[in-house]
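Below is a filled-in request sheet from our internal design queue. Each sheet records the structural input a requester submitted and the sequence that came back. We keep these sheets so that new team members can see what a complete request looks like end to end.

REQUESTER: design group, bay 2
PRIORITY: normal
MODE: inverse folding
CHAIN LENGTH: 242
BACKBONE (tokenized):
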């Protein structure tokens, strides 16, 4: 049977797993249920001592993962051995599961999520209007030498944008963005930070995608973006904001 040790780090339940996740690992689902009932919707699973995950085990993990999502929680994985990662990759679960190299970075990501959530709440109340779009955008990492990757801007505001693209960067990555806002102001180049990664289970219609917040944006560029947004808003949207 799968061995599970529970401990707590702030509001996160940390489960140290040892052994095999297979058909005999139903206790994992039970443990996840206990965590949710006990007020721990955020769960980190440490895979350092996992020897094997077979196809029955993948079903166990998927059931538990969906249960956490249904309770508006987050389940993440740390210290996942290479052979287990390969199993996730073979069945496409590497794109659904959040996997981190170590426990420290995984725990930090829970805190990052809270910061991002606060940003999003503020954006819902923000005075800046959001313009739905479908225009091309190019973006690349600001820390590496690489070509611009193509994408589509789905919406734009004075604080950031939502981009649909095949190439996705991790949270916190600073990117160089080049977009064409026609007829005015034309080509605009800005720096942004990745603050949200679209989750397929939650927003399948815009997956894969990223929420990008403007980073170190000067006031002149922000004014140009604000004018572009306001100039292109539908009249109904403008009246709703008055």
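RETURNED SEQUENCE:
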């Amino acid at each position: 049977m799968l061995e599970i040790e529970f401990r707590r780090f702030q509001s996160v339940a940390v489960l140290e797993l040892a052994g095999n996740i297979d058909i005999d690992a139903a206790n994992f689902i039970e443990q996840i249920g206990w965590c949710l009932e006990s007020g721990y919707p955020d769960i980190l699973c440490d895979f350092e001592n996992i020897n094997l995950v077979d196809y029955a085990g993948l079903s166990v993990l998927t059931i538990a993962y969906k249960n956490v999502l249904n309770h508006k929680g987050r389940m993440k994985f740390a210290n996942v051995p290479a052979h287990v990662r390969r199993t996730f990759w073979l069945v496409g679960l590497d794109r659904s599961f959040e996997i981190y190299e170590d426990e420290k970075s995984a725990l930090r990501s829970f805190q990052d999520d809270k910061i991002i959530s606060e940003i999003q709440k503020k954006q819902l109340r923000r005075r800046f209007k959001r313009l739905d779009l479908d225009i091309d955008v190019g973006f690349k990492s600001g820390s590496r030498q690489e070509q611009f990757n193509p994408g589509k801007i789905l919406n734009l505001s004075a604080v950031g944008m939502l981009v649909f693209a095949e190439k996705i960067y991790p949270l916190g990555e600073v990117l160089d963005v080049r977009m064409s806002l026609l007829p005015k102001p034309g080509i605009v180049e800005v720096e942004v930070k990745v603050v949200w990664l679209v989750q397929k289970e939650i927003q399948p219609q815009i997956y894969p995608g990223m929420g990008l917040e403007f980073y170190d944006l000067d006031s002149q560029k922000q004014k140009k973006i604000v004018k572009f947004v306001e100039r292109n808003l539908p009249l109904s949207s403008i009246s709703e904001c008055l």
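SHEET NOTES:
- The longest strand covers residues 42-53.
- The radius of gyration is 21 Å.
FILED BY: M.R.
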